[in-house]
């Protein structure tokens, strides 16, 4: 498994344990008819078996045999030039395999969850509540590569991979809210951004955050700046009414959480002017509340 992915999931487990828990970018796809069908349907539980929610997830008293699932990977065909570019970027990096392994190793899953790379016809990524699957569109990776190339990154492929890692964990946020029936106060898209930051910014056993994971969140934030630039910085009523927070606001949120997780290590965000001082002043408390909330919500479902 890629070191960066392994570190992030291991750090997540350690961080929650140490905290004492005993216990889009995504958008609705134009059609989910082509998505992998759900492979698990809740069935009536015999007497003496743990209660389950509508997704077949056992209550917290269930032991390991109640969590037989794993995340599986499929790369579908690509035909358009943009989709081929995105597919090659993530497939040659074995990205989906690494991410799926990390989820299988860290989360209790009640059934198999497909992680699908596919040509969607648009830059997108999404969790399908009906199919119980995560889809990463090849065009999303290609679009990220274009943004970082135009930004003059020395290694735009690495930046694009970082963004797709964070995108995946954003979709993981939607996934865990759905399958574990977790409460989410506020817009779910914002909560999913928080989970991506939470996973990637979790400190390891040495108390330090993996620098590559920090960079993944920073690159994810910069991608939203790229989206805003693509629109010429204009804001219309459709964007204001959208379920997603405005691109630049998402960028500042992510930068705030990076800074809040380690103000000393990420002081460059403020000194460079990327994060306004007025927002930075509250970011440590903001991240602490975010982290504590996800410790409580996700703790019971960690292996």
TrEMBL record:
Taxon lineage: Bacteria, Bacillati, Actinomycetota, Actinomycetes, Mycobacteriales
Stretches the record annotates as Disordered: 24-80
Signal peptide positions on this chain: 1-18
Assigned keywords, A-Z: Signal
Keyword Signal among UniProt keywords: yes
Chain intervals with Low complexity compositional bias: 27-50
Pfam family name, one: DUF4344
Protein name, as recorded: Metallopeptidase DUF4344
């Amino acid at each position: 498994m890629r070191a960066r992915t392994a570190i992030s999931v291991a750090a997540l487990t350690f961080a929650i344990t140490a905290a004492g828990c005993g216990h889009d970018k995504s958008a609705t796809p134009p059609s989910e008819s082509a998505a992998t069908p759900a492979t698990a349907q809740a069935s009536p539980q015999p007497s003496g078996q743990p209660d389950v929610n509508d997704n077949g997830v056992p209550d917290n008293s269930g032991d390991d045999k109640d969590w037989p699932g794993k995340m599986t990977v499929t790369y579908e065909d690509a035909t358009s030039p943009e989709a081929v570019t995105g597919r090659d970027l993530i497939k040659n990096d074995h990205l989906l395999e690494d991410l799926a392994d990390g989820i299988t190793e860290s989360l209790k899953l009640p059934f198999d969850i497909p992680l699908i790379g596919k040509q969607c016809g648009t830059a997108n990524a999404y969790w399908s509540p009906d199919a119980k699957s995560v889809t990463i569109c090849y065009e999303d990776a290609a679009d990220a590569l274009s943004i970082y190339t135009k930004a003059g990154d020395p290694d735009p492929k690495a930046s694009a991979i970082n963004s797709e890692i964070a995108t995946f964990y954003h979709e993981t946020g939607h996934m865990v809210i759905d399958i574990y029936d977790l409460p989410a106060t506020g817009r779910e898209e914002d909560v999913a951004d928080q989970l991506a930051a939470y996973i990637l910014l979790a400190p390891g056993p040495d108390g330090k955050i993996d620098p590559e994971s920090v960079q993944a969140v920073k690159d994810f934030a910069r991608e939203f700046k790229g989206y805003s630039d693509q629109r010429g910085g204009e804001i219309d009523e459709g964007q204001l009414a959208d379920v997603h927070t405005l691109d630049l606001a998402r960028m500042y949120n992510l930068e705030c959480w990076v800074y809040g997780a380690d103000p000393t290590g990420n002081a460059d965000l403020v000194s460079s002017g990327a994060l306004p001082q007025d927002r930075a002043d509250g970011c440590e408390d903001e991240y602490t509340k975010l982290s504590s909330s996800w410790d409580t919500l996700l703790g019971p479902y960690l292996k």
